Structure formats: C-alpha cells, structure tokens
Amino acid sequence: MPKSGREPAERTPRNMVEWIVSDGLTSYEEALSFMEARVDAIHAGAAEECVWLLEHPPLYTAGTSANPADLTDPDRFPVYDARRGGQYTYHGPGQRVVYVMLDLNKRGRDIRAFVQSLEGWVIDTLSSFGLTGHIREGRVGVWIDRPDRPPLPDGRMAEDKIAAIGIRLRKWISLHGISINVEPDLEHFTGIVPCGISDYGVTSLVDLGLPVTMDDLDAALRQSFETVMEPRNKA
Fold first, then answer.
1. Rounded to an integer, what distance in angstroms lies between the CA atom of residue 124 and that of residue 140?
2. φ, ψ at 36 (rounded to 5°)
3. Contact predicate 224/118, CB 8 Å
4. Each residue's pLDDT tens digit in the chain (235 positions)?
C-alpha cells in the first residue's frame, strides 16, 4: 500500500474502484512498483480497480516514443524510462498525478476509446472551474486557448497544455494515466520538449488565475469520474 495521509474514498457497488490519496511526495520507483503489483492483483481477482492521486519530486519521464533530442537538459532532474505511451513528460510538486489501474475488460477493449475517455474526464473536471479544455488532432492531452497571448506566426491562436495523458496496458489493465498542472514550477518544463511539441506552451490552474487547491481538484476529479469513466459492462 502506498503512503497515504487520508483514508481511501468510499466505494459503492456501482463503481468498485479504490481511491488512494497520498500526501507528500511519492518516489517514481515506489509508484511503478505499486502499479505493477496492483495490476497483477486486479488480473488475479485479488484487488479492486484503483485510482491513485499523488505528487512526485521533480523528474522527467520518457515514453516509448521519446526522442532523445527532446531531453534538452538531461542533468537537471532524474530521468526515468516510463514504458508508457508518449514522449517526454515532467512531474513535480504542484502537479496532480492521477494513476489509473482500470480493467479494460470491463470498459471495452478499445485503447483509443479509453484514452478519449481519460481526455473527457479531464475536460469535464476542468469545466467545474469554468475552464474549457480542448482535444487537438495529433496532440494527446488537454489544451487551453490563450487569446490573451499573441497569436502564433501562422495566425493560429496561442494554446497551452494543462494536462498530459500517457498509459500502458498489461493484460488489458491500465497503468500510468494523467497529470494535471495545479501550481507546478512551469520553468521546470524547459528541460524537455513536452510531449515533443515545441509550438505551444504549458500552463496551470493557478497560472490561469484560478486559486484551485489539490483538494479542490481531487473533489472535481471524483465527481466527474462517476459519470465519464463508468464501465461499459460489469462482466
């Protein structure tokens, strides 16, 4: 069991998912170890699905599509091979990491649909704070329009990324998940080309002028999960 300063959230027969919220900073090694073990237990029928909310110390992770040239400051923070989809991502204090260990046997064995449901979960969560998140073709994650900033050289509206998504599947059970920027040090993202995209920036809830806390975000995530991430079947 990962370190947690709070009790797991209440479970119901309709949605048997254990929620864990860890206080402080959780090492990446501990997170990987827990996810691997939990997936095995879920597959064996010995544990429920799980959503784990945590923060990491500053670090970079490399997905299976990571381009070494996109790690522009390799000595700045530890770099981990995440073995998830995607490219380079930053994690650190002030960012809510949401690890999802969910059984796609219950949710339809459709990876694309599952990623879209994760994106929809983030968008629905952001809407509770008055933000409109967007999905862009060819750019995984959730984006925010920035009409307050100068347009891009080709005339397109400036956009910033507020949430990254990267998953891995074992036995049709997911590992890894989502990271949402609440109030991280945005300068820390400059050590990589986030998700291999250099035309756009990175933002956070607080950077957008919203005094949102981790507890606020956690409550919104839980509320949105009940509707957006409902299993397609119970078999």
1. 16
2. -60, -45
3. no
4. 675 544 444 444 445 899 999 999 999 999 999 999 999 999 999 999 999 999 999 999 998 888 899 999 999 999 999 888 788 999 999 999 999 999 999 888 999 999 999 999 999 999 999 999 999 987 888 999 999 888 888 888 989 999 999 999 999 999 999 999 999 999 999 999 876 666 788 999 999 999 999 999 999 999 999 888 876 554 4
- How are beta strands 17-21 and 49-54 bridged, if at all? parallel
3-state secondary structure of 143: strand
**Polymer length in residues for the chain:** 235
pLDDT tens, residue by residue, 106-115: 888 999 999 9
Query: What CA–CA distance (Å, rounded) separates 113 from 231?
Result: 12
Q: Are 129 and 220 in contact (CB under 8 A)?
A: yes
- Helix, coil or strand: residue 217: helix
How far apart are the C-alpha atoms of 103 and 233, rounded to whole Å? Answer: 11
Q: Report yes or no: 178 and 98 within 8 Å, Cβ to Cβ.
A: yes
Supply φ then ψ for residue 216, to 5 degrees.
-60, -45
Positions marked active-site: 195
CA distance 95 to 1: 21
Radius of gyration over every alpha carbon of the chain, rounded to an integer in angstroms:
17
Q: For residue 84, give the amino acid letter.
A: R
Distance CA 96, CA 216 (A): 11
